[in-house]
Design goal:
Blueprint (H helix, E strand, L loop, with lengths): L1 H14 L5 E10 L11 E2 L1 E14 L4 E6 L4 E6 L13 H12 L7 E7 L9 H17 L5 H16 L6 H8 L4 E6 L4 E6 L4 E11 L3 H19 L14 H7 L5 H25 L3 H17 L6 H11 L4 E6 L5 E9 L3 H16 L4 E5 L6 E2 L1
Parallel strand pairs: 4-6
Antiparallel strand pairs: 1-3, 1-13, 2-7, 3-6, 4-5, 7-8, 9-11, 9-12, 10-11
The protein binds alpha-D-galactopyranose (GLA).
Alpha-D-galactopyranose binds next to helix 5.
Length: 384
Amino acid sequence: MELIDKLDARCRERWGQAPALVACAPGRVNLLGEHIDYNAGFVLPVAIDRATYVAVVPTDEPTLTLEALDLGEEAVLALNDLEHPPAQAWARYPGGVAWALRERGLEVRGLRAVYASTVPRAAGLSSSASVEMAFAMAFQQLGGWSLPPMELALLCQRAENKYVGVNCGIMDQFASACGQAGQALLLDCRALTWEKVSVPAGTAIVIANTCVRRELGSSAYNERRAQCEEAVRLLSTRLPGIRALRDVAVSDFERHLGLLPEKVAQRARHVVEECERTQVGEALLKQGDAAGFGVLMNECHASLRDLYEVSCPELDAMVAAAQQLPGCYGARLTGAGFGGCTVNLVEAGATGAFGEALAARYAKATGLQGEVYVCQASAGARIL
Ligand code: GLA
């Protein structure tokens, strides 16, 4: 593959050596269960055929020399001074992973690494998780220890929460770690157990990038999380024993709605209904019911737009255009929101015409150039 050749050539040019290993980890797209992982419910992500690749040359020096090929930048991190995160924001992802692994008592060897990604950055496809997981695989291989993929995913989530400072849930790192070719993944975010689920025969997953990103993304994300926690606190006065919104049935929510301030109630309604949608969606997927599942995707988008308020005009335009096109079962924003991508379940034979028409309609509605591609469900993080 062209990108791997490029990384290989860069290692030779920069450090006079071929890489000892190349690790890769995919991004993800989520089919259903949005803003549910940190509410302990079920999510349905798919690891995609876009990934971060890292080529590594080990050294005996206690440093990480990191080059981000896509950015044309380099950072040098001292392994015994990881408590101070590097100035460059991008270097905090690999740095944070090294920090989390060492904190757990795992050996992290010095290395020189150059990496690049085919996951579009800041587009809701988990480019950060893919960087974290690719480095985690490389550190594991060089360190000579081995952890189950879910454990590695949890350490990468810890790196992102505590080192990068984004209070994300487990879905992205999990999907990047545990992806399966040709399959969606159903994860119970409380039990951390999961199973493979097939996407209905004769359908394809199409990703459409609005190519816009709203700045308020991470503060709004943390605010939504806090509102969900507030809802649990208030509801637990009448529903003792609940630990997360996952534990609240829609009927109980309706009964005790009056306890919640308006915005908190709106956020919580999205979550309790989306938890239910994901359970129904699992059953529909298992029956191969693409049409039924698509309806749930459409409902999810409306809920994210109107109740959770994490959409934006460009995402709404992309979704509205898709939902009117022939062969489209369902369309919705995917990931945290505030720009980025939509996910579409489309009749396999219709993807070409769908993609062209969608891009044209999006351009007409917004004056912007979007990007559309058919995504293959892929394997998780690995050493190549
Ligand atoms: C981001 C976070 C995930 C998840 C989604 C929303 O991708 O990293 O943990 O919360 O948003 O579903």
